[in-house]
Every structure is written in C-alpha cells, then in structure tokens.
Amino acid sequence: MSFVDSLQKEFEAFMDKLSHYEDVFDFSAIDHACYRTSSEVQYKKIKSEFSQFAILLVESMVGNRLIATYKLNKPLSWGNIKIDIVEVPAPKEGRQYKDEFEHVEIVINESFNDFASKYPQFKFDFGATSKKHNPELKLGLDHGGTIKFHHQALEAVIEQEKRLNI
Length: 166
Hints:
- By secondary structure, the chain is of the alpha/beta class.
- It contains four helices and seven strands; from the N terminus they run αβαββββαββα.
- Strands 2-3-4-1-5-7-6 form a seven-stranded mixed beta sheet.
- The longest helix is centred in the first third of the chain and has 16 residues, at 3-18.
- It is globular, with a radius of gyration of 15 Å.
- The protein starts with a helix and ends with a helix.
- The relative contact order is 0.19.
C-alpha cells in the first residue's frame, strides 16, 4: 500500500473516532489536520513522503521545533469532509509521540468565550487563546485526539506570516 493510501486510511480511522462530535461541531469547517511524527528521523521520512503528493507551503520553527505544512494534490476525505492541508510537526524535545493524526482544526467566527459557552458539557483548554499570533481554543477528547478551534484558516495564516516575515 502506498503512503498516500495508508494516510487516507489513517485519516478515516481518526475521523471515525471523532464521529460522535460531528453532530455537535461544524465538521464542514475543518480547515486542516495535524499528523504527528515520533522522531526527527520519522519527521524527515514523512516530509519526503509528503513531497511526492503535496506542495510544501511552509516549514518554520514553532515552539522550538520545525513544522512543515503541505497542500495535498488530492484531498483526504471522510464522507463529505475533504481537507487538503496537513501540518507535520517534528516532535517536541522530551515528549513521546506516535506517527499518527493527532488533531483537526475548525475555523469559527465567534469569540472563544462565546463559542465555549454554547458547550458547557466540555472542558475547553483556554491556555492558547491569548497567543498574539493565531490563537486557539483546544478540546482534548477521550480517545486522546484533539479538536482545535481558530479564527482563521491555516493557509491564510501562512500567507499572513509570509507577508509579515514572521
């Protein structure tokens, strides 16, 4: 099985885990997914694989590790959901990760407080909502995955960063 076929199957399995949240949150607003890597060696290998079927939008240092963001030639799909942006972070020093999808990010059009107040049944993590650049609201899920909420699509953020030289 090719890497891209394997990635599609992994994406489907990850989204299946999130499926019981589909009726709660607007999955049509999923902007991108994050595929974690377990080591520097795997980061380089996965980047090489992505370069075969995607365009590198940017690779930049974020939080003391590199993150590569790709625009796929053919979107990953799950039902009617299609995403064509995948970020691939190198592992943070001292942390253990698996090579797998970790989170999806959804664009919302309201304040984080207003958004979270509509879902009192969830314990949102507001820790990154005050970040100067591209703030986010996080929701850790029971199975270990995460849904993050942003105000801008990642591709727009990348274009903004390029213009501002961030």
